Amino acid sequence: MAIYTKVDTHEAKSILENFNLGELKKIQGIKKGIENTNYLLITTTGKFILTLFEKRVKTKELPFFMNLMLSLNDRKILCPKPIKNKNKKTLFQIKNRQAAICSFVYGKEKTNHTLSECRLIGKNIAKLHMVGRKIKLHRVNNLSIKSWIALNQSIKTKANKKIPNIYGFINTLLLDLKKKWPSQLPTGIIHGDLFPDNIFFNKTKFAGFIDFYFSCSDFLIYDIAICINAMCFNKKIKFNKLKANALLKGYSSQRKISKKEFTALPQLLLGASIRFFLTRLHDSINRQKSAIVKVKNPKEFLKRIQFYINTNSVNKLFY
Asked: Which residue has the higher pLDDT, 290 or 31?
């Protein structure tokens, strides 16, 4: 979440005229995140999130995200629910942007999870995956391993100026990883961005997942790899084996992880690290100067990459 496109009070009131959400009391920009413009709308009936879709989100894919969140809500998965306007539509246009209003998830992110919370997160990811496999929706992951070599190439010159020789280092890793990338693992709809700022708690109670705009069809265990990378390293990038095991234990309590999935984890963890390193590096190079957004540090994931290069077996990671 971030602010790329400004929406004022008058414009927000105009939007709400097409919804049955009461009258606007306050509009507040949300600075966290990097992909879309987000505002908190406080009305006479409650709190809602207004999202204007920017950058990577393709207009033709927006119905997938809306239908996914509606379907997940119907199946009792805790997440934002797109609100239909008076014309029964979830999507509308403002300032040449597609936009939507979703329900507010009452809770907040945690930056340092207990082992109990890690188990709870794993448990709820598994529930999300099992429900997702029953939903007849499909979206290709446009940030899968197939895209990473091209992404690395697209920022080659500027990337090398920021971090000397980084293009060649990443390219060599990717060519090797492509040969080792697993196949025929259980697939389904994944969240695709399971970072702490997208996982909400209300005190110690799990409150829900937010920000489904990277959701796609991919290996289920890849979602866990993303989450381990996001949650199981401290600020000094030291791996927390206890948290990783707690996350896996919680997940396994709802959905069994196959031996093949478990064996593939080192490659998926490295791959997920490269994916977020490249997208963060790309965003830091191509930052929109007028945007109100905090660019995330790609070097945090470069350190994860180096960790996985030196720790390339399941036994070293989880036992």
From this structure: 31
| One-letter amino acid of 206 | F
| Contact in structure between 33 and 125 (CB atoms under 8 Å) | no
Mean pLDDT of 237-247: 96
What is the pLDDT, as a whole number, of residue 26?
97
**Closest to 28 in 3D by CA, of 19, 17, 41:** 41
How far is the CA of 85 from the CAs of 7, 52, 82, 125, in angstroms?
19, 16, 10, 30
Mean pLDDT, rounded, of the chain: 94
Task: Name residue 103's beta-bridge partners.
Answer: 48
Residue 224 pLDDT:
99
- Give the domain ranges of the chain: 9-104, 109-318
Is there a contact between 16 and 41 (Cβ–Cβ < 8 Å)? yes
Whether the pLDDT of residue 28 is over 70: the answer is yes
SS3 track for 67-81? HHHHHHHHCCCCCCC
Give the phi and the psi of residue 207 in degrees, each rounded to 5: -105, -25
Q: Class assignment of domain 109-318?
A: alpha beta
257 DSSP 8-state letter? P
Mean pLDDT of 14-26: 98
Residue 131's Cβ-count burial label (10 Å; 0-12, 13-18, 19+) is middle
Q: Given the structure tokens 């105009």, which residue do they identify?
A: 14
* pLDDT of 296 strictly over 90: no
Q: Supply the CATH classification number for the domain 9-104.
A: 3.30.200.20
Residues 206, 124: Cα–Cα separation, whole Å: 8
- Enumerate the β-bridge partners of residue 24: 43
For the stretch 106-129, pLDDT in tens is 999 998 999 999 999 999 999 999
- Reduced to 3 states, what is the DSSP secondary structure of residue 256? coil
Instruction: From residue 37, give the alpha-carbon distance in Å to each of 8, 18, 91, 94, 268.
Output: 13, 20, 15, 12, 30
The phi and psi torsions of 21 (rounded to 5 degrees) equal -120, 15
